[in-house]
Protein backbone atom coordinates (compact mmCIF):
# COMPACT_ATOMS: atom_id res chain seq x y z
CA UNK A 1 0.00 0.00 0.00
CA UNK A 2 1.34 3.43 -0.89
CA UNK A 3 2.59 5.62 1.94
CA UNK A 4 0.37 8.47 0.75
CA UNK A 5 -2.68 6.24 1.13
CA UNK A 6 -1.68 5.36 4.69
CA UNK A 7 -1.20 9.04 5.48
CA UNK A 8 -4.62 9.94 4.11
CA UNK A 9 -6.36 7.21 6.11
CA UNK A 10 -4.63 8.18 9.35
CA UNK A 11 -5.27 11.86 8.71
CA UNK A 12 -8.99 11.26 8.02
CA UNK A 13 -9.20 9.39 11.32
CA UNK A 14 -7.53 12.28 13.12
CA UNK A 15 -4.53 10.18 14.12
CA UNK A 16 -2.00 11.10 11.50
CA UNK A 17 1.71 11.32 12.44
CA UNK A 18 3.59 14.57 12.69
CA UNK A 19 4.43 16.21 9.32
CA UNK A 20 8.05 15.11 9.46
CA UNK A 21 6.83 11.51 9.84
CA UNK A 22 4.12 11.63 7.20
CA UNK A 23 5.47 8.50 5.55
CA UNK A 24 4.86 6.24 8.54
CA UNK A 25 3.53 2.90 7.45
CA UNK A 26 0.31 1.24 8.48
CA UNK A 27 2.32 -1.58 10.10
CA UNK A 28 4.17 0.96 12.27
CA UNK A 29 0.86 2.45 13.34
CA UNK A 30 -0.51 -0.97 14.31
CA UNK A 31 2.59 -1.82 16.33
CA UNK A 32 2.82 1.52 18.10
CA UNK A 33 -0.87 1.62 19.01
CA UNK A 34 -1.47 -2.09 19.68
CA UNK A 35 -2.45 -1.57 23.33
CA UNK A 36 -5.14 0.88 22.28
CA UNK A 37 -6.46 -0.94 19.21
CA UNK A 38 -9.61 -2.97 18.69
CA UNK A 39 -10.72 -4.51 15.42
CA UNK A 40 -14.06 -5.97 14.38
CA UNK A 41 -15.52 -7.93 11.51
CA UNK A 42 -18.56 -9.87 10.34
CA UNK A 43 -18.40 -13.55 9.50
CA UNK A 44 -21.06 -15.45 7.56
CA UNK A 45 -22.12 -19.07 7.89
CA UNK A 46 -25.08 -21.18 6.83
CA UNK A 47 -27.19 -23.54 8.98
CA UNK A 48 -28.40 -26.98 7.86
CA UNK A 49 -31.75 -25.45 6.92
CA UNK A 50 -30.01 -23.03 4.56
CA UNK A 51 -30.47 -19.96 6.76
CA UNK A 52 -27.60 -17.48 6.47
CA UNK A 53 -26.26 -16.25 9.80
CA UNK A 54 -24.04 -13.24 10.42
CA UNK A 55 -21.55 -13.45 13.28
CA UNK A 56 -20.06 -10.27 14.72
CA UNK A 57 -16.85 -10.34 16.75
CA UNK A 58 -14.23 -7.94 18.05
CA UNK A 59 -10.60 -8.59 18.93
CA UNK A 60 -8.00 -6.75 21.01
CA UNK A 61 -4.77 -6.26 19.08
CA UNK A 62 -2.36 -6.47 21.99
CA UNK A 63 -3.79 -9.48 23.85
CA UNK A 64 -5.60 -11.18 20.93
CA UNK A 65 -8.63 -11.58 23.16
CA UNK A 66 -11.73 -12.24 21.11
CA UNK A 67 -15.28 -11.28 22.02
CA UNK A 68 -18.10 -12.89 20.03
CA UNK A 69 -20.78 -10.23 20.27
CA UNK A 70 -23.65 -12.13 18.67
CA UNK A 71 -25.08 -13.88 15.66
CA UNK A 72 -28.23 -13.03 13.74
CA UNK A 73 -29.92 -13.71 10.44
CA UNK A 74 -30.85 -10.04 10.15
CA UNK A 75 -28.01 -7.64 11.09
CA UNK A 76 -30.23 -4.56 11.11
CA UNK A 77 -28.95 -1.11 12.03
CA UNK A 78 -30.67 -1.30 15.42
CA UNK A 79 -29.14 -4.73 16.15
CA UNK A 80 -25.62 -3.60 15.26
CA UNK A 81 -26.01 -0.39 17.27
CA UNK A 82 -27.24 -2.31 20.33
CA UNK A 83 -24.29 -4.67 20.06
CA UNK A 84 -21.99 -1.65 20.06
CA UNK A 85 -23.64 -0.26 23.20
CA UNK A 86 -23.31 -3.60 25.00
CA UNK A 87 -19.66 -3.85 24.02
CA UNK A 88 -18.83 -0.36 25.26
CA UNK A 89 -20.30 -1.20 28.65
CA UNK A 90 -18.33 -4.47 28.78
CA UNK A 91 -15.10 -2.65 27.89
CA UNK A 92 -15.70 -0.07 30.60
CA UNK A 93 -16.35 -2.80 33.17
CA UNK A 94 -13.15 -4.58 32.11
CA UNK A 95 -11.10 -1.40 32.31
CA UNK A 96 -10.13 -1.61 28.64
CA UNK A 97 -8.48 1.64 27.49
CA UNK A 98 -9.09 1.34 23.78
CA UNK A 99 -8.68 4.46 21.67
CA UNK A 100 -9.23 3.15 18.14
CA UNK A 101 -11.50 0.61 16.46
CA UNK A 102 -10.62 -0.68 13.01
CA UNK A 103 -13.52 -1.73 10.81
CA UNK A 104 -14.13 -2.16 7.11
CA UNK A 105 -16.64 -0.25 5.00
CA UNK A 106 -19.38 -2.88 5.20
CA UNK A 107 -22.84 -1.41 4.77
CA UNK A 108 -24.00 -3.27 7.88
CA UNK A 109 -22.38 -0.59 10.04
CA UNK A 110 -24.85 2.29 10.62
CA UNK A 111 -23.82 5.82 11.56
CA UNK A 112 -25.05 5.16 15.10
CA UNK A 113 -22.46 2.39 15.45
CA UNK A 114 -19.64 4.87 15.01
CA UNK A 115 -21.39 7.43 17.20
CA UNK A 116 -21.61 4.98 20.13
CA UNK A 117 -17.85 4.45 20.08
CA UNK A 118 -17.07 8.12 19.53
CA UNK A 119 -19.13 9.00 22.60
CA UNK A 120 -16.99 6.50 24.54
CA UNK A 121 -13.78 8.18 23.35
CA UNK A 122 -12.95 5.52 20.75
CA UNK A 123 -12.16 6.73 17.23
CA UNK A 124 -13.24 4.68 14.23
CA UNK A 125 -10.53 3.88 11.69
CA UNK A 126 -11.82 2.66 8.33
CA UNK A 127 -9.73 0.19 6.38
CA UNK A 128 -9.08 0.85 2.72
CA UNK A 129 -11.35 -0.42 -0.03
CA UNK A 130 -10.48 -4.04 -0.87
CA UNK A 131 -7.55 -3.98 1.56
CA UNK A 132 -8.28 -6.79 4.03
CA UNK A 133 -4.66 -6.76 5.23
CA UNK A 134 -5.37 -3.42 6.91
CA UNK A 135 -7.60 -5.35 9.29
CA UNK A 136 -5.40 -8.44 9.31
CA UNK A 137 -5.81 -9.37 13.00
CA UNK A 138 -9.58 -9.60 12.70
CA UNK A 139 -9.37 -11.27 9.30
CA UNK A 140 -6.99 -13.87 10.71
CA UNK A 141 -9.46 -14.70 13.48
CA UNK A 142 -12.23 -15.09 10.90
CA UNK A 143 -10.14 -17.63 9.01
CA UNK A 144 -9.27 -19.43 12.26
CA UNK A 145 -12.91 -19.62 13.28
CA UNK A 146 -13.84 -21.04 9.89
CA UNK A 147 -11.02 -23.58 9.76
CA UNK A 148 -11.15 -24.80 13.37
CA UNK A 149 -14.88 -24.56 14.08
CA UNK A 150 -17.40 -23.75 11.36
CA UNK A 151 -15.92 -25.95 8.62
CA UNK A 152 -16.00 -28.89 11.05
CA UNK A 153 -19.43 -28.34 12.59
CA UNK A 154 -22.95 -28.89 11.29
CA UNK A 155 -24.90 -25.90 12.59
CA UNK A 156 -28.53 -26.67 13.33
CA UNK A 157 -29.86 -23.22 14.17
CA UNK A 158 -29.01 -19.91 15.79
CA UNK A 159 -29.07 -21.35 19.31
CA UNK A 160 -26.66 -24.12 18.35
CA UNK A 161 -24.41 -21.61 16.58
CA UNK A 162 -24.21 -19.35 19.63
CA UNK A 163 -23.38 -22.33 21.84
CA UNK A 164 -20.56 -23.41 19.52
CA UNK A 165 -19.22 -19.86 19.31
CA UNK A 166 -19.18 -19.48 23.12
CA UNK A 167 -17.23 -22.71 23.45
CA UNK A 168 -14.78 -21.60 20.78
CA UNK A 169 -14.42 -18.17 22.39
CA UNK A 170 -13.47 -19.76 25.71
CA UNK A 171 -11.07 -22.14 24.00
CA UNK A 172 -9.49 -19.35 21.93
CA UNK A 173 -9.04 -16.99 24.88
CA UNK A 174 -8.12 -19.45 27.58
CA UNK A 175 -6.19 -22.24 25.93
CA UNK A 176 -5.21 -21.83 22.28
CA UNK A 177 -1.61 -20.55 21.90
CA UNK A 178 -0.94 -17.54 19.66
CA UNK A 179 2.36 -16.91 17.91
CA UNK A 180 1.77 -13.16 18.00
CA UNK A 181 1.95 -13.16 21.82
CA UNK A 182 4.80 -15.67 22.27
CA UNK A 183 2.50 -18.73 22.19
CA UNK A 184 0.53 -17.61 25.24
CA UNK A 185 -3.26 -17.53 25.32
CA UNK A 186 -5.05 -14.16 25.60
CA UNK A 187 -6.34 -14.85 29.11
CA UNK A 188 -3.65 -17.27 30.30
CA UNK A 189 -0.01 -16.54 30.93
CA UNK A 190 2.67 -18.98 29.91
CA UNK A 191 3.60 -21.40 32.72
CA UNK A 192 7.05 -21.31 34.26
CA UNK A 193 9.41 -23.44 32.13
CA UNK A 194 10.32 -26.82 33.61
CA UNK A 195 14.10 -27.31 33.60
CA UNK A 196 14.32 -30.30 35.92
CA UNK A 197 14.64 -33.51 33.82
CA UNK A 198 12.97 -35.55 36.55
CA UNK A 199 9.89 -33.35 36.54
CA UNK A 200 9.70 -33.56 32.75
CA UNK A 201 9.82 -37.36 32.94
CA UNK A 202 6.84 -37.36 35.32
CA UNK A 203 4.60 -35.17 33.21
CA UNK A 204 1.05 -36.51 33.01
CA UNK A 205 -0.71 -34.77 30.13
CA UNK A 206 -4.48 -35.11 29.96
CA UNK A 207 -6.73 -34.15 27.07
CA UNK A 208 -10.05 -32.39 27.53
CA UNK A 209 -12.43 -32.30 24.58
CA UNK A 210 -14.89 -29.55 23.69
CA UNK A 211 -17.81 -29.71 21.29
CA UNK A 212 -17.68 -33.46 20.97
CA UNK A 213 -13.99 -33.61 20.16
CA UNK A 214 -13.74 -30.76 17.65
CA UNK A 215 -11.57 -28.78 20.05
CA UNK A 216 -8.84 -30.32 22.21
CA UNK A 217 -7.29 -28.88 25.35
CA UNK A 218 -4.17 -30.40 26.91
CA UNK A 219 -3.29 -29.93 30.56
CA UNK A 220 -0.76 -31.33 33.00
CA UNK A 221 -2.61 -33.35 35.61
CA UNK A 222 -1.95 -32.22 39.17
Q: What is the helix/strand order?
A: HHEEEHEHEHHHEE
The CATH architecture of the largest domain: 2-Layer Sandwich
Estimated structural class: alpha/beta
The main sheet comes to: 5 strands, mixed
Number of helices: 7
Give the low-confidence spans.
1-5, 18-23
Count of spatially separate domains: 2
**Strand tally, please?**
7
Strand content: 15-25%
Mean of pLDDT: 85
Strand order of the largest sheet: 3-2-1-4-5
Shape: globular
CATH superfamily of the largest domain: Ribonuclease H-like superfamily/Ribonuclease H
In the CATH scheme, what's the topology name of the largest domain? Nucleotidyltransferase, domain 5
State the helical fraction.
25-40%
Structure, described:
There is one protein chain. This protein is α/β, with parallel strands linked by helices. The protein folds into two domains: 1-32, no CATH class; 37-190, 2-Layer Sandwich (Nucleotidyltransferase, domain 5), CATH 3.30.420.10. 36% of the residues lie in helices and 21% in strands. The protein has seven helices and seven strands. The protein has helices at 3-12, 26-32, 77-94, 111-119, 136-148, 158-174, 197-201, and strands at 37-46, 52-60, 66-72, 100-103, 123-126, 205-210, 215-220. The strands form two sheets. Strands 3-2-1-4-5 form a five-stranded mixed β-sheet, with helices on both faces. The protein has a two-stranded antiparallel sheet with strand order 6-7. Strand 1 and strand 2 form a beta hairpin. Helix 3 runs parallel beside helix 4 (111-119). The longest helix is centred in the middle third of the chain and has 18 residues, at 77-94. The radius of gyration is 20 Å and the shape is globular.
